[in-house]
Structures are given as structure tokens and as C-alpha cells.
Protein 1
Amino acid sequence: MRKILQKVFWPLLRIFETGEDAVGYQKSHRIILIILGVLFLGLSFGSAWMGNVTGEMGALIPMVVFFAVGFVALVLGIFGSDSAVCKIWRSRS
């Protein structure tokens, strides 16, 4: 199942895949990336809910931005390689 989802998300993953060794990679980087993704998705849903309650269309912009950042962080945290995680954190030794 993981291989199928990696193929589905390949257009997004190839942006961050470098093919280089993951110098400076730590397991905590991946965990923090997943937590960050969940938090941003929560902000996205909170913004959508508040926009629905107030009827303001201005809530659409932060909802889309927070959702995009959270989605990318989750996909990279779950399906990305170690070098992709290093690239998003810009970890270099």
C-alpha cells in the first residue's frame, strides 16, 4: 500500500527528492514534520469552520494556505525519503 501511495504522491515528492545522502538526518526531524502537518491541517479546518460560522469569504485564503502546508508536511513526513526530509529542513552538516 505504501508503494502505491508513493506513486500517487510522486509529483509532490519529486520536488523534494534529491538523490543525495541524508547527511544530518535525525528521526526527530520526521516526527516534527508529521506533527507540524497535523497542526497546520487543524488550523486549516479551524479556519474553514470559523469562515462558515461568520460567513466571511476571507477565511478561504488562510484555509487554503494552511491546508497546503499541512498536506505537504504530512506527505513528506510519511512517504518522503530521508533526503527529502533533510531538504525541507535544509539540514546540512
Protein 2
Amino acid sequence: MHPIDLAAFWPGYAVVASRQYAENNLTLTLEPLASALPRCGRCLEPSPLIHDRRIRYVRDRDLFDQRVQLQVPVRRVDCLSCGRAPERIDWLEPSSRLTRRLRAWVEMLLQMLPISHISRLTGLHWHTIKDIDKRRLQASVGAFEPGNVRRLVMDEFALHKGHRYATVIMDAERTRVLWVGKGNSREAIRPFFELLGERCRQIEAVAMDMNTAFDLEVKQHCPQAEVVYDLFHVVARYGRDVIDRIRVDQANALSHDKPARKVVKQSRWLLLRNRDNLKDEQAVQLQELLAANQPLATVYVLKDALKEIWYAPSVREGWQRWRTWLRHARDSDLPPLQRFARNLKRYARGILASARFRMHTSLLEGVNNRIKVIKRMAYGFRDSDYFFLKIKAAFPGKAR
């Protein structure tokens, strides 16, 4: 190979030797061109005085079917302005063992493929690729830039097993994640409002689940903001505290009739799913179940009535629907339903506020589902900061 055949790939250096040290693995030995003066890595001025040099092995982008490794002499110059400093190499970052060209290629692949696939394709270690991805994400979404935010959505999600949680906060109008942090306490979410600073005054509504910590912290920092309780979380809690409890009670009451008991025990998803999402045969099963079991029919009908409160066209209409629902729940003679209704009364203002602020419930449901997908794909999710950056990148927002 002629010494300058590939010089254009590594400005300032010439290829002086090549060696095939394994199948599909090529090592190229580079030497600085005598005509190119080294530059100080600090002031970028030419510096002809060389203090020392060391050999560094660097991976570059593949050349056809060959994985390319470079043997590069990296020098320290004796700069007249800065003293001893590493030289500036345009195609290689300081202390890096990957060329800028290889990093750019990996960053492009990261937008299309999982890390494990890129690792097999390039031969780079999983953690090396993760570090490249993390730095890319920090540059693109790492900064806190709330913009002209007026409405927020706050939600918690499971970070690890064992009831360890994190909190995500979004711009509701642009569906853009603004901040993610560990924990779901007041102290955990306070840094967001401290970063928001004076912009807290422009927040007019905040959607959340019935988390007292979120509620209190919002009222402290944004006293003018209306808290809007999210339908998705309320219905999910209704399913756990009311439908599941009554379904189990009804199944236990049918211990003498094993076929009927089995039908009730296996009806959980029929009762929790929206009727529109059921297949024809499932809809028939649901209708037969409700016709045969009055308590389950009652809680199922009141589940739909509860949802209708959030879709009221006005606060007045919402109040009427709310009062009607409370009356039916109180008269049901079903203790789990009555207990749920009593607990829900203290959240009435945040429920009725949905008539003024249409903070769509599918937004939080979509966020939760997307976070679960990211968590399943992210081997190495032990790095919480990296995981949070992935979440922010998944919700970049849309123009208003």
C-alpha cells in the first residue's frame, strides 16, 4: 500500500504500514506528515516543539468488510503559550479510542437500531455504544428548556421492583417531556419547580393522579394553577378497589356453584376493558355475565357513568353528573363502591376542573405504555440518567 493512498481519511497523517491480524480485522499504522505542524489542543496554535509521544490504538469505521484499527502516535506539544498540552487531532477527540467518523456512524445507527444490534454489527462493547448514545442524548435533550409552558401533566412510574418510583412531567399542549426525576415525593419533584422559577406564574392547569405530594407541591409553587385529576388513574383505581373487590366477593359467594364461580373469577378483563374494545363473542359473554350478576352489573354501569363526568361539556353539567353518580354509589349497598365514593368526594374540584381544561387522559396512558417499552428494550437501565434521557427523547414535542 502506498503511504499516502488513504491520507485523506486522516488529515495530517499518512498510512505507513498495514497488517491483517485476524480475519476481517485490519490494523493501519499512521505517522504524522512532516509538513504538517502539530497544533496545541488548548489554544489551537501551531506548536513545533514536541515534548513526547505515545502510541494509541483507535477504532475507525469499517472499511468494506474490514474492521479497522489505527495505530496512532499521539503527541504532547510544548506550547509557548499553554505549556505542555496534548496536540489537536481534528478526527480524534482527546483521550478517545474511537474516531469522530466512527462515533457519527454509531449515532446514526442508534436512531434506527437497538444497542445490542449495533454492538454485533460494529464489534463495539455494549457500554461503549451506550456512552455514545448518552452523550448524544445529553446534547440534544439534556438541557432544561420549558419554553412557554402553560399546562403540565405529572405522573409517576415504577423505576425498579420494590416500589421505587420516578416522576415524569410533560408540557400537556406539546406532549413534550420537560423533566424526569427519581422519586414521587414533594422533595423529589421540587427541583422541577425550582428550575421553572418565574415561569411557575404562567402555569394555569396541572393534570395528575390523586397523589397528595404532587397536589401540595403544585399549590405551593403555582397557587393560581387548577389541579385536574386524570381519568385514566381514577378509573384504574376504580377497577382495583371496586370491580376487583366485588368480583372476588361474588366469586366467593358462588363456592357452591363451581361453573358459575369460574365464570366470575375469569371475568376480570371483560369488566375492565372498554366495551368498544371487546370482540363480538366477548361482548356476548359480558352481557350474559351482567344479566346474571346484579352487583357486577351495577359497578360496571357506574364505571361508564364515572367516565362521563370527565366528558361533561360544562362545569354545571359535570356537577349534575357527579351528584347523580354519588347518589347511585351511595344507594348501591355495595361497601367497596360506597367506600370508594366517600374517598373520591374530596377530589371533586379536580374532577370537575376537567370541564374547563381538556387534559386528555390518553396522553398519560400513552406515556406510561411508551416508558414500559423503553424499559423493556433498555438493557443496562441501571443507569437512571440514561433511561431518563431516553424518555425525554421519546417525547420531543410538537409545534403549537
Protein 3
Amino acid sequence: MSYEIAVQRKSAEFLNSLDDKSRRIVRTRLATLSDDPYPGKSGDKELIKSPKGRPDEKVYRLHIGRSFTAFYTIRERTVYITEIMTIEQAHKKYGIL
């Protein structure tokens, strides 16, 4: 069974602001989440934590190369891409999710 990928508006805006090569790389990596969005043997996906006030919802992150990180949630058979940012921005954000 595959998962549907839904890119939230803020993430789509960031994605569209990238140069063609970066946009292609990010889209290709996001598409891999449709097969299996859960962390596994590769170290590129990780469960981060639950958002405040929503303990039943988990936030995951996907490293995309050495340049970008995507944050996402999973509900039923849909992966919601909530944020895409540079890896530097993501490291700063880890503590405030």
C-alpha cells in the first residue's frame, strides 16, 4: 500500500523558491515517502516528537542530501509535509517542535 503525499502551502512555497536542481532533488526524495514514510534502517528518517497538545500526533523528519530537511506527519494513508527548510534552520528548530 502506498501513501499519498500532501505538501502544505508553506512547504510548497519554499520548494518553489528553490533553483531547478534543488527542487528536483527535494521532490524526488519526498516521493520516496509514498512507499514507506516510517523510520527504518536508513538514517535519513527519524521520529522527532509529538507537537505540544497533540500527544497522538508524531512529527518525523527526512534529511534530503546534506542541504535540506523536511518535517512531516502521517495520518491514515497520507503523509503531510509540514515544513521544508535548510539543514541549518532545521537544527535550530529541533528544540522548539
Protein 4
Amino acid sequence: MHIKVKYFGQIAEVTKKEEESLEFSGQLISELLETLHSKYQILKITDFKVAQNQELVSFETKLTGQDIALLPPFAGG
């Protein structure tokens, strides 16, 4: 499956990318994150949320969309 991963805020800063495309054969968001953790070790200790097709999802959600976003923590106010 062809996946587009978008990075925002501090995530974009640590990956030095705003987005990238990759081929991925896993089935869960957590499996995709393992792949990204191996590529960007700093993500293991970085707090973020994941959105799939513009909807926040848990790490154990089945990968169904091709647009994934890693979002930094939200500030309230």
C-alpha cells in the first residue's frame, strides 16, 4: 500500500521533513509507527497523535487510509 505521511510542528523539525511517501505492507498504525521509529529514533521519545484521513486514531487502529499525519500535542487555552 502506498502511504503518504505528513509531519507537523516539532515532528517535522525532528524528521527534517514535512511529508514523505512510502510503500508499506503492514496492517496497523502501530506497525507503521515501528517502521518510522526505526527510521527516526527520536520519535520513540516524542509525544504525538496520529490522524488517518484527517481523523484522530489510536495506535492499534487498522490502517485503511493512505493519508497519515503525525501531530504534536495540542495546546489548550
